[in-house]
Design a protein that fits this description.
The protein is an alpha/beta fold. Helix content is about 30%, strand content about 30%. It has a single domain, classed as 3-Layer(aba) Sandwich (Rossmann fold).
């Protein structure tokens, strides 16, 4: 997806993917995300394509060290503003951080970031990153994401599976595609699914006849 597409979405307020509340899957399965981290040790959690997600604050409140990656600077700055963290925010180069809370957002293209620069992570929370990408970028995304995850680290991944005309982003990503993309790097378990069609009028208006949200847990090989 072209960077200008996402900048325009944020500029015009077309951010239906943003959730005002902490994601229910994250709240329910948070312990699985940090399950490989020794008790009493903060986990480093990566949130790719994070936008201004309130999930960053939730993870920080659990005592974890959180690093988001976001292409659009406006979105990153909006997170700190709306979280009421402006007074404690430090900016340097392409990073914005609230040091006292252990939250950092790297502004830039996810594919241009490297473990040499950002380090490796105990867990990854992906609610809206994979599904935002077209097929050719999803094929690049999985191995690049895996390069950031420590052996034994966890991936908590949300996907959409729907029937009807293409309406992405978000894109429909089948279970078979998830397995093909991630099984070389993670032992995968599908934790469950949720029917979203009744609560998703914009999808129904576009001709979608079935819409399910699937939740995956991956353990880095």
């Amino acid at each position: 997806m072209e960077p200008d597409f996402w900048r325009e979405r944020w500029q015009t307020g077309q951010i239906g993917f943003h959730q005002e509340e902490v994601n229910a899957h994250l709240a329910e399965h948070y312990a699985k995300l940090t399950g490989a981290t020794p008790p009493g040790t903060p986990a480093r959690i990566l949130v790719p394509l994070c936008g201004k997600s309130v999930d960053l604050s939730y993870l920080s409140e659990q005592g974890e060290q959180v690093v988001g990656i976001e292409l659009v600077e406006t979105a990153a700055l909006a997170f700190f503003e709306e979280a009421g963290l402006r007074s404690g925010v430090v900016r340097s180069a392409n990073r914005v951080r609230a040091n006292d809370l252990g939250i950092e957002i790297v502004i830039g293209d996810f594919f241009e970031q490297t473990p040499a620069e950002l380090g490796t992570f105990d867990g990854v929370w992906d609610r809206a990153a994979l599904v935002a990408l077209p097929p050719e970028l999803r094929a690049r995304y999985a191995p690049h994401l895996a390069s950031f995850v420590k052996p034994g680290g966890r991936l908590l991944l949300v996907t959409f599976v729907f029937d009807g005309p293409p309406v992405g982003p978000p894109h429909s990503v089948s279970d078979d595609e998830v397995r093909a993309l991630f099984s070389p790097f993670f032992a995968l378990e599908r934790l469950g699914e949720h029917d979203l069609l009744a609560e998703s009028p914009r999808f129904r208006e576009r001709g979608v006849t079935s819409l399910r949200e699937h939740l995956w847990l991956g353990k880095r090989l």
